[in-house]
Amino acid sequence: MAQTYNLILKISRYDPDTQRSWVQGYPVQAGEVLRFVDVLRMINEDQDSTLTWSSSCEHGMCGSCAVRVNGKPVLACELLVGDAVEYFKTYTFTIKPLTIAPVLRDLVVDLETAYERVRVIKPYIIQAAPVHPEGDEYRIPPGILQIYESATRCINCFCCAQACISRPARFLGPNAMLSEIVRLMDHREMARDERMAILYGDRGVSRCHTSRACSHVCPKQIDVAHFMALAKESKFILNKRDIAE
Ligand code: SF4
Ligand code: SF4
Ligand code: FES
Asked: What is the rounded CA–CA span in Å between residue 106 and residue 11?
C-alpha cells in the first residue's frame, strides 16, 4: 500500500505588484507516488489559489516546471514525494524558483530572459549542407549518432545552468554549450567556423571549471560535463568521425 506523508512545504513567494518577497509554509498530506506538481496543485485547490508555479507537459519534456527543492534544481513534474523523502531524508521541503532569470511571480521565472543565453548560439541550422548525392537523406555514422542522440535529449530546463559554478555573466552555460555541440555534430551544418568561434569564444567552454554539477542534476541523465570536457579537448574541431573513434 502506498505510504502517505505529512509534509511541510516552505515555498518562496513574490508579488511583482508590491515587490514583496516572503516564505510561506503549507502543511500537506501527500502519498509517496504524487509528484511535486501534484502537491502544488493540491495547495492551489485546497489552501491557496494565489500560489503561482508553472508547468506545461507534466511529462519531463518541456522544462517549464524546474524549481529548486531543498537547493537542488529538479523538474517538479518528475520528482515523486516518496523519492524526495528518501533522497533528502526529511518531510520538510523548501521550494524556490531558479535564479537563472528574474522571478515573475512566486516560482515562475522569466524563461524568455533565460533563453537569451541559448539564442546566442543560434540553435538552428545556420547554413545547410547540400543533400547526399544518392538521395534526400543526410547520413550519420552509428558512433556519432549514439553521442548525438544523448546530447539531443536536452529539454533546456536550465537545471544544469542553475547548478553551474561558473558565473553566468561570463559563461553562456552548459545547456547553451551543449546546444552548440549538437549543431557541430549535425552533418547538415556548414557554418562550423561561426560555431567554433562561439564554443571557444570568451563566453564559451573555457569558462567551465569541470565541477560536474551539471551532469549531477540533469533530469535527462545527460553527462553534460563529459561534453564540456570533449569540447575542451578540441574534439569538436576534428572531423565528426574522430569523435566516434
Ligand atoms: S542538459 Fe540536462 S539539465 Fe541542462 S538544460 Fe538540458 S536537460 Fe536540463
Ligand atoms: S562541469 Fe562546467 S558546465 Fe558543468 S556545472 Fe561544472 S563548471 Fe558548469
Ligand atoms: S511540466 Fe514539462 S518538464 Fe515538467
From this structure: 8
All three cell numbers of 211, joined, read: 565541477
Q: Which residues line ligand 1 (CB under 6 A)?
A: 154-160, 174-175, 178, 218-220, 222, 224
CA distance 148 to 232: 17
pLDDT digits over 213-225, tens only?
999 999 999 999 9
Ligand 1 centre to CA of 35 (Å) is: 20
Q: What pLDDT, on the 0 to 100 scale, is given for residue 238?
A: 45
Backbone angles phi, psi at 27, to 5 degrees: -80, 135
Ligand 3 center to residue 56 CA distance, Å? Answer: 6
* Joined grid coordinates for residue 91: 518531510
Q: Is 97 in the pocket of ligand 3 (CB under 6 A)?
A: no
Contact, 140 vs 239, CB < 8 A?
A: no
In this prediction the pTM is: 0.93
DSSP SS3 for 58: coil
Cell of 71: 537547493
**Which domains are present in the chain?**
4-109 (3.10.20.30), 111-244 (1.10.1060.10)
As a dihedral over the C-alpha atoms of residue 104, residue 106, residue 111, residue 117, rounded to 10 degrees, the angle is 90
Averaged pLDDT of the chain: 92
Residue 242 scores a pLDDT above 50: no
